[in-house]
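Our platform keeps sequence and structure together, in a single record for each protein. Nothing more is needed to write down the fold, since each code stands for a local backbone conformation. An entry from our holdings is shown next, in its original layout:
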Amino acid sequence: MVLRVGIDVGGTHTDAVILDDENNILEAVKTKTTQDVTSGILDALVKVLEVSGVDPAEIRAAMFGTTHCTNAIVERRELARTALIRVGRPGAEAIEPLVEWPEDLRQAIGDIKHLVHGGHEYTGEEIIHLREDEVRRVANELAEKGIESVAVCSIFSPVNADHEERVAKIVGEELGPDIPITLSHEIGSIGLLERENSAVLNAAVVKVAGKAIEAFERAMQDAGITDAALYLSQNDGTLMSAAYARKYPILTVASGPTNSIRGAAFLTGMKDGIVVDIGGTTTLVGVLVKGFPRESSLSVEIGNIRTNFRMPDLIATGCGGGTVVSSRDGAVVLGPQSVGYELSEKGLAWGGDTLTTTDIALSAGYAQIDDPQCDVGNLSELDDSFVREVVEKIIESLEEVIDKIKTDPRSMPLVLVGGGGLLIPEERYGTLNGVSRVTRPRSYQYANAIGAAIAQVSGEIDRIYSLETTGRGEVIEDAKRTAVERAIAAGANPDTVEVVDLEEIALPYLPGNAVRIRVKAAGDLVL
């Protein structure tokens, strides 16, 4: 039997689940997230193996959802000293590279940037020849500055990547084969500044991602899992190998929410609808489209930086199971503070001195927690009318984000997952505005880890084609073929790969009857 383990690290809990080759859930556990994250992962691995009785040698794949890169960007720590080379002089000199970046983040990565001659038109034709002598001179300067990582961004590189690839070759020759080099066409899509930002962020977190992957590998070894391939969840709800993640770590930054959305789809069989993931600190709301998270059509900000690589369309609200409840001027206030993973120490029901949303759900009588340390008697002094008011506030905050995430006025089905899913009373499932029905599936509290374990492998293409010399059908077939080939190259079983999304956008502001084609293909992982 081929077994795999899925692990998702949240702000409050780290979840682990073991699935067999027919996607049956053998066991699932929840442990506290630790401050160093890695020891919490080891705790979860050891516990799920112990409870399930599974021999670690039977595990053939381990899938991780991680927040390491997100935390590094937000907290401005452990970022690599990064240089940016923009290929686009003279036309791209008008806007300075990294101009919108917060000063502290620019300083954290070294704020080193260079412009060189080169770039292409949207048709793939050169605007101006690449000045290789100029690139080599820049590379020599970087060697003297102790650069740890390099990002390269050229005008319209998603259409023609030749200049980026030639720059990378020269930089590798001058700085050595071990220097990580991020090429923007491999990360982002059309849009120079956002793609450039995406490439630089990726280059900046390569170092921290490498350390995280090494820590995952050590945790697997310490848990006795010695014969399993390591995969990481990425933003679109699919998987990438550890080697791929070392090169493109920025694609993991929203893996937690997408794991929950994919897990919700698996647990319910639902292909289209709303997914609400209530964690310990926040509630995240996303949308399922054909079984995958709906991708954002807008530039997504990471650490206040605009990017344009694939990201799920999500809305977050600061209401989770550990959210602090207070009263101000007679009105109920939820958060923004949260006790997070310290709920079982600080929550009133556990003998602490902090009133949380979980305490409210317990006091109202519609939630039960199987923990001998949790005593509802500690909540006896809470005023019933205040408790009811807080429950209404929780529901109101949920309805607000549901309304924001919807693009259709019709009611939609909703799946409720996450450890904090007990905050919503079942008696209110039928009254939520904009919702046709609510499902809280079995194992709902482990949806994120399950989503990591069942995730598929994908390939994607996003490029501009000219229809002047090539027919529409031909370019669409070319894009489909490329997406399928990329999915297979990423590790998907060729027999299972299918196109799951195709988008065609006319570009009337460009000459040559231009059209932008985006195609995504996905298939089951070969184990």
Q: What stands out?
A: The longest strand covers residues 456-466.
